Amino acid sequence: MDREDFRKLLGEIGQMRMPFGKYGPAGVPPRGMPIYDLPPEYLSWFKQRGFPKGRLGELLAIVCEIKDVGMDLVFDPLREANGGRVTYRVKRPRERNFGEGD
């Protein structure tokens, strides 16, 4: 793969967001998590059970391979261009107790 092909591939990875599941738009509004920020454990789960069909599956497999070999830093320019790493945090309900004498 030459530089220009790799640059196009990274551009495509940079634009792809997870369209379903825990990291999809319902879990990470408004558009879902960028696939380059998906946790390695999530990608490994797909690797064991099979990636989705189509271009999304191909790109997820490439991202998984890049992360498996420890080259996650290749995605840093994409993160910088998009405002930083996207994280997934489960929102905990705030507990307020205004009872007397507690």
TrEMBL record:
Name of this protein: DUF3820 family protein
